[in-house]
Amino acid sequence: MKHYLSALLFSGMLTFSVAAQEFQMPAASPSVKIEQDFSTSFIKLNYSRPSVKERKIFGDLIPYDEVWRTGANSTTQITFGEAVKVMGKEVKAGTYTLYTIPGEKEWVVILNTDLDNWGADGYNKRKNVVEAKIPVERLNKQQETFSFTVEDLTKNTANLTLAWADVKINIPIEADNHKRIMAHLKRELAGENPPYHRAAGYYLETGEKLEDALKYIGEAIKENPEAYYMYWTEAQIYEKLGHSKMALRSAQKSADIARKTSPAFAHEYERNLKEMSQRLNK
Q1: pLDDT of residue 19
Q2: Which of 106, 145, 212, 226 is 20 to 30 Å from 73 at the Cα level?
Q3: Rounded to an integer, what distance in angstroms lies between the CA atom of residue 256 and that of residue 215?
Q4: Domains of the chain by range and CATH?
């Protein structure tokens, strides 16, 4: 009984301790960390989120034509997991502070290498790696809380979207990842578990090395002969190579296997077959 009571007491103390550590008073401008998969790596953001609270924001609380921390508290920081272009300017992989200079019709967006500043105090223009102008969009519906999101994602482009009060700006980001992907695939294809399907899919997407793509998708199908989606990849490669009969044969196989093994996807692959047949039999 003594040990049981001791265990209960210890458990209660531990629970109280954890609860005490987790408790925090509501912040006026809560901090947030976001991470978005992008290209072959990621984009990370660390910033604080003020709210409008019935105030006039731009041109008043946040003056025009002055350097702003782009959020609240410490300056917003952004990290790129690989080299990118931001607003057309080359930026190496790493972490940067993100300053802005708001204006009525356009903003200046700045990436700076000094990570130790609080707000705009200590801002040093000489440490800028990017400084470019972005047009302002006006929101029809007010954005109460300051927000960054990563929007319009493709395999190598995205917009970093800032929205607050009645203002929105889109900061374009681009990754030149083709050489990196090709080098990665070459390295992995020579390894113990070659990514045959991924390689075939990428070569199909880019229109490069289509003969190799055909070979690799064949190897992938040997490893997984019931994978209906792989036959559809094969069909598209054949179509790009101009082999219409082989393309339709693989598309038919894809639809047949989907019908038997994955009824939820059967309609999609039957539609793929029908559309390919219409294209190739014109």
Answers
A1: 52
A2: 106
A3: 22
A4: 26-174 (no CATH), 178-280 (1.25.40.10)
Confidence bin at 6 (pLDDT 50/70/90): low
In whole angstroms, what is the distance from residue 112 CA to residue 125 CA?
8
First to last CA, the chain: 86
Neighbours of 39 (CB within 10 A): 24
Structure tokens at 31: 């901090």
Round to whole Å and give the CA distance between 157 and 176: 9
CA dihedral 26, 147, 38, 113 (to 10 degrees): -90
How far apart, in whole angstroms, are the C-alpha atoms of residue 130 and residue 68? 15
CA atoms of 115 and 145, how far apart (whole Å): 24
pLDDT at residue 10, rounded to an integer: 47
How many whole angstroms separate alpha carbon 3 and alpha carbon 275?
Answer: 73
Q: What angle do CA 85, 89, 94 make, to 5 degrees?
A: 60
* DSSP secondary structure code for residue 125 in this structure: G
CB-based contact 51:145 (threshold 8 Å): yes
Q: Report the b/e string of 178-213 with b at 16+ CB within 10 A.
A: eeebbebbeeebeeeebbbbbbbbbbbeeeebbeeb
Secondary structure of residue 155 in the 3-state scheme? coil
* Side chain identity at residue 102, one-letter code: P
CA distance 6 to 268: 62
pLDDT over 80 at 181, yes or no:
yes
Length of the chain: 282
